[in-house]
Design goal:
Blueprint: H1 3-51, H2 56-75, E1 85-86, E2 98-106, E3 110-119, E4 125-134, H3 137-140, H4 144-160, E5 174-180, E6 184-188, E7 191-194, H5 211-221, E8 226-232, H6 234-245, E9 249-255, E10 259-266, E11 282-286, H7 301-308, H8 317-322, H9 324-342, H10 361-368, H11 376-385, H12 393-425, E12 437-442, H13 444-448, H14 450-464, H15 466-469, E13 472-476, H16 480-491
Helix pairs in contact: 1-9, 1-12, 2-12, 4-5, 6-16, 9-10, 9-12, 10-12, 12-14
């Protein structure tokens, strides 16, 4: 070998050695950076868990606060963050109702019409039919005449399709229960003035108007002979539907896109009602508990950001912590910050992760319930909703952990709210001849998010104690807003009995 060749070999060898050293250094640096990233991600999840913690002691204070706010709202008009609205529903279904009744459920971009044939004692619902109708976009921002005219027209078509299996008693007028899930100031069981439109509706000429009168005028123009017998919201409908099948139902809760609660109160015990209502009997109260707030609520920085960027900052705090509309976006905000501060999804932040409400509570539920060994469903959902094609099992496990923290916090707070209502009713403790207490719950969040519903029920038992919780039953109540409205039309019918001739 010549000198030149030898020198070249030496240089090449040195270069190779340097390259090898550089590769080792790069790999060590990469592993070190990755270790730091994971450490930061784990730290953020631990911080989230600490901020979201809802131990029993804190939940009991939340329940106490709920009961106190209920009393304050009943004592004085406007005395509480929760409205405690009088519904004038003082005659709940008993199961003996008989005849043909209709329901109209308006609460979003679609409305639903239903007819129910009630068979009386022991026969309950003999037959029912329903139809869902989409509202044209232009009618959601047009005039009240246009909107109610369209609704009455579709209702008339539905009535005209009434088959022989449905029987209206001779000489009786058809009666309707109207579920109107917008803020109204109720003035009787079948009247109420609109406070404001929500859910994408903007119809100024209807503000302050009696919504039942508006619908009645529209039905008259369609030559539809029908009386609105009850005006309710979905929560009151759920209470009515639950009571129809079980006389011990005294509380109803909605846990879906939004959340609310209603319960049965003794009318004579409420100071602000004196001279307004009979001094005896029961009355259903629409709590509007989504606006409840307390210094004991475990609120995180992600909740504060969501609230500040919402359409109603400072309002509906309880709802923003527990309802289906917000759970997914809280999870998204956590993952976004982890992507920003811990490169959780790699060096590039997925653009879709910045889109508000890009993750729904249904997405969170699907990931949370993934039982596959490699969490394949979580990986597919992250690819679909966030645009991250490849995620490690470690990443997927941490995403599930975030879902678990947020969902269980919501479930535990919902349980505390229910405990507060039971406390107000004096049904939260054990002892003596304790009445059976049934809480009817409706809403997709409770019905389909199994981990959420199981956590709620176990937390309520934890709060009440084993003995007291034995007399409290949680029941899933399907279709409360539809069937319940028809049942309230029956229980508040203009006719004195439900017997067919």
């Amino acid at each position: 070998m010549g000198k030149a060749t030898a020198r070249a070999a030496v240089v090449c060898g040195a270069a190779a050695a340097m390259a090898a050293v550089a590769l080792v250094v790069w790999r060590r640096r990469t592993r070190s950076e990755e270790t730091l990233r994971w450490a930061r991600a784990e730290e953020m999840v631990s911080e989230l868990e600490e901020m979201s913690a809802a131990p029993v002691e804190k939940l009991r204070r939340v329940a106490d606060g709920m009961a106190e706010e209920m009393n304050a709202g009943l004592e004085v008009e406007g005395g509480s963050k929760i409205k405690m609205l009088i519904t004038y529903v003082d005659n709940l279904p008993t199961g003996s109702e008989k005849g043909l009744f209709y329901a109209l459920d308006l609460g979003g971009t679609n409305f639903r019409v239903m007819r129910v044939q009630l068979g009386g004692e022991g026969r309950h619902v003999v037959k029912r039919e329903s139809r869902e109708v989409s509202i044209p976009r232009e009618l959601m921002v047009g005039s009240s005449t246009g909107l109610f005219g369209f609704i009455a027209s579709e209702l008339k078509k539905f009535v005209d399709s009434e088959g022989e299996d449905f029987h209206l008693s001779v000489g009786k007028q058809r009666e309707l229960g109207f579920t109107f899930s917008f803020p109204v100031r109720q003035t009787s069981v079948a009247s109420g003035t609109l406070i404001k439109w929500t859910k994408g509706f903007s119809i100024d000429d209807a503000l302050g108007e009696d919504v039942v009168a508006e619908l009645t005028k529209a039905m008259e123009k369609e030559d539809l002979d029908m009386r609105v017998a009850a005006l309710v919201n979905d929560t009151v409908g759920t209470l009515a539907g639950g009571r129809y099948y079980d006389e011990d139902v005294v509380v109803a809760v909605i846990l879906g896109t939004g959340t609310n609660a209603a319960y049965v109160e003794r009318a004579h015990s409420i100071p602000k009602w004196q001279g307004l209502l009979p001094k005896s009997g029961d009355m259903v109260i629409n709590m509007e508990w989504g606006n409840f707030t307390s210094s004991h609520l475990p609120i995180t920085e992600y909740d504060r950001e969501l609230d500040a960027e919402s359409l109603n900052p400072g309002e509906q705090i309880f709802e923003k912590l527990i309802s289906g509309m917000y759970l997914g976006d809280i999870v998204r905000r956590v993952l976004l910050k982890m992507a920003e501060e811990a490169a959780f999804f790699g060096d590039t932040i997925p653009p879709k992760l910045r889109n508000h409400f890009n993750l729904s509570s249904q997405d969170v539920s699907v990931m949370h319930h993934d039982a596959t060994p490699d969490l394949r469903i979580v990986g597919n959902k992250l690819k679909e909703k966030i645009g991250v094609a490849d995620t490690s099992l470690k990443t997927r496990k941490m995403v599930v952990e975030v879902c678990d923290i947020i969902a269980k916090r919501g479930a535990r707070l919902a349980a505390a709210g229910i405990a507060g209502v039971l406390k107000k009713l004096g049904r939260d403790t054990a002892g003596g001849d304790k009445k059976r207490t049934v809480v009817a719950i409706d809403g997709a969040l409770f019905e389909h998010y199994t981990i959420f519903s199981q956590c709620l029920e176990s937390t309520l038992r934890e709060l009440l104690g084993e003995e007291a919780s034995r007399s409290v039953v949680i029941k899933l109540a399907n279709d409360g807003s539809g069937l319940g409205a028809a049942l309230l039309a029956a229980s508040h019918s203009q006719y004195n009995d439900f017997e067919e001739p």
